[in-house]
Structure formats: C-alpha cells, structure tokens
Amino acid sequence: MPKRSLNGKTVAISGAARGIGKATATALVAKGARVAIGDIDLELAEKTAAELGGNVIALPVDVTDRSSFENFLSETERQIGPVDVLINNAGIMPVGLFSEESDDSARRQIDINVHGVIFGTKLAVERMLPRNSGHIVNIASQAGKAGVPGVATYCASKHAVVGLSEAVRGELRGTGIEISCVMPAIVNTELTSGVKPARGVKNVEPEEVADAIVGALEQPKVDVPVPRSAQSIGTFFSLFPRPFREAFARMMRVDKVMIDVDKEARSAYEQRAAESEPSAEHKTPVS
Hints:
Elements: E1 10-14, H1 19-30, E2 34-39, H2 42-52, E3 56-60, H3 66-80, E4 85-88, H4 103-128, E5 134-139, H5 152-172, E6 177-184, H6 206-218, E7 223-226, H7 229-237, H8 242-251, H9 263-275
Parallel strand pairs: 1-2, 1-4, 2-3, 4-5, 5-6, 6-7
Helix pairs in contact: 1-6, 3-4, 4-5
C-alpha cells in the first residue's frame, strides 16, 4: 500500500508542549502538516510552536474538561482547517505503591488518561463522520497490555485506552475513520525520569515514538508497539504458562522497574503530578 501524504493535513495534538507530543509535532511539520499544539501550559505550548515555526499554532486545552477540548478542536479548525488527525497524547504517571496512592491521585489519572481520551475521541468522531474520513491516534503504553507493580492505576488507565480504541474501531468500521493505538515502552521523557529499564531493555526516545505515529498515519496501522519488537516478544512469551512468565519477569527486574526509582530524579515531575490532583489549588495536568 502506498504511503498517504501528510502534506497539508491538519493535526491536533493534546499535551504537545513537551515530550512525545512535541517530538510528534516536529515530525509532522517535517511532513508538511499543519499542527495545533494543545496543552494546559499555554506559555510552554507557544514557545514550542515558535520553535517549530511553519504552520504551527498553540492553543490551551484541559483534556479533563469536555468544553475545553471542544474549544481546542473548534479553534484549530477556525485557524488552520478541519481536523484530519487527532492525537490523544496528554497523560500523567505518578509512581508509588497502590496501597499508598491517594484517591485524588487515582481520580486525576483516570480523568486525564481515560476521560481525556474519551472526550477527544468523541469530539473528533463528531467532526470526522460527516466527511467520512479522519484518523484518531490514542497514546497508550506497553503497560496497557500488562500489569506493572508501582503504577497500578496508570496500568488500569492504559488498559482502558487499549480497550476503548479497539471497541471504537469496531463501531467505526466502514466510515473511513481510522483508529491507531500506540503502545510505547519506557520513553526518555520527564514522565519516566528516574525510572531505570529492566535488564536487557533499552528506553526508547520520543522521536522513535513520533516516527511510529507518523508511520501509522502514512500507512494505517491499528496496533503500534514501540519498539516494534515488543509485539513479537509479547506474543512469544504468551505461549508459556503464567508461573514461567512471572519468574522470568522477576529475573529481568520488571517487577521492580517502577518501584526502585530514583526519587530525587523524579521529584520535579512528581511535584507537577501532585499539583494536578483535584484537591490542589492550581490544577496543572502533566503531559
């Protein structure tokens, strides 16, 4: 199948002022796309947009607020054209034992990581259905296919994104709207600061995830693991009984990756994540 051109396409990305979102915006601009960088931190989003230049705009968006998300997409369409692609990227990942996690922290993760994707997907579908075309990319995680100690609620939220993407894709079959679910391993962004990979596993770079997203847009793919080898490895190990898989995971320290973190290295991120909790005076979702 020949690659689809992204030149002139309008792409809206939530949580795009930094990290994977910023890397993806950069890659799309290089392909000639018009990009709307949405973020709760408008000042940083404007700085990112200025760095990228070209057909890039910065807009505020709080993905936990449906009206804010709707305004983000409406303003994107007003300024640079009908949204061809929505990338639901915004997310947070506080690290800690489930028994010690506050209810506010859990609620905020679900609000951002799940409700944010639900709002964005619904609003994008409303715009894309009349045109019988469009592409929605939901950023999940390898944690959406597994259970990782230390990030139980985060895993739950990413399992939700994987399931949502699969179900909505089934509903949209035949409409011309594509759904892709991107599932990165540990990515070198602030979200994973202080997290050491399991034995024999390398962290991936935001640019690798961005390249995978661009690839899924040019040649539509539903499941997009990053790195690509993660899918075949997962399939291989699924052939073995659970006791073997769990013993191997312990040997590779998978069960310790999100528990034995460098707390000092994570302190700045965890502080921002804590400030995003509903009880905080200033709500600052982390992307």
